[in-house]
Specification:
The chain is an all-alpha fold. The protein has helices at residues 2-36, 42-46, 53-78, 81-107, 114-124, 133-145, 190-194, 206-245.
């Protein structure tokens, strides 16, 4: 009976680590794809090298989970106590790091409010200055999502104008309607847009547009995160049980 239980634990351990291995492989593939060929991400990611940080983090996490799953599978099949112990300690550190990140995200969630982004936009936005990371990122987001500011064009009334700009031209170019929503897209009527003609401007705020666009994906990401934590927890339990059962 004990041998059957150990054998069952071994194959369950292999199964859970195989899922971790596949998850790591997927993250690794997505990270490589974004860095090597950022089609569809060029406006938001490739426009500024600093924004590649997220892709590199995804790449590192994918590689780590890939290696972790591989070690767990080998440790389970070969019944190697050293590999199982290394696997347990490694996945425990990852589990605690992910749990800490989730707790911090919950504690500081108020920093992702509409008011916070509006305040930051008015404080740091430099209009068409693409050498500035903050401004370039905002311009890329507004062009890509066909939106303007956090709440709408009125957010830019408090943003300092460029030299020699007329006072009525508070709306930045990134808020103007384009035939194609990309930096290469031709303006429908740039002058009318900058002069305040509303029908040539993107009037909807980016906060609402992005929230609506990613609402489904946020819940999906949350469900996947819970699933990953559960898999890691069970993998640790099986690793310890298998470790104790190996003679």
């Amino acid at each position: 009976m004990e041998g059957d239980c150990l054998s069952c634990m071994k194959y369950l351990m292999f199964l859970f680590n195989f899922f971790i291995f596949l998850g790591g492989a997927c993250l690794l593939g997505v990270g490589i794809w974004v860095i090597v060929d950022p089609t569809g991400f060029r406006e938001i990611v490739a426009a500024n090298p600093l924004l590649f940080t997220g892709a590199y983090i995804m790449l590192a996490m994918g590689a780590m989970l890939f290696l972790l799953g591989f070690l767990g599978c080998c440790g389970a099949i070969r019944e190697n106590k050293c590999l199982l112990l290394f696997f347990f300690m490694f996945i425990l550190l990852i589990f605690l790091a992910e749990l800490s990140a989730a707790i911090l995200a919950f504690i500081f969630r108020e920093n992702l409010t509409r008011e916070f982004f509006t305040k930051e936009l008015k404080k740091h936005y430099l209009r068409n200055n693409d050498t500035d990371v903050f401004s370039s990122t905002w311009n890329s987001v507004m062009i890509t999502f066909a939106c303007c500011g956090v709440n709408g064009p009125e957010d830019f009334e408090a943003v300092p104008l460029l030299p020699y700009s007329s006072p009525e031209r508070s709306t930045p170019e990134a808020c103007c309607l384009r035939e194609l929503q990309s930096r290469e897209g031709v303006f429908v009527d740039r002058e009318a847009c900058l002069s305040g003609v509303e029908r040539f401007q993107n009037r909807q705020g980016c906060y609402t547009v992005i929230l609506n666009s990613f609402e489904t994906y946020v819940y999906l990401a949350g469900a996947l995160a819970i699933g990953v934590l559960a898999i890691e927890l069970f993998a640790m339990i099986f690793a310890m049980c298998l470790f104790r059962g190996i003679q």
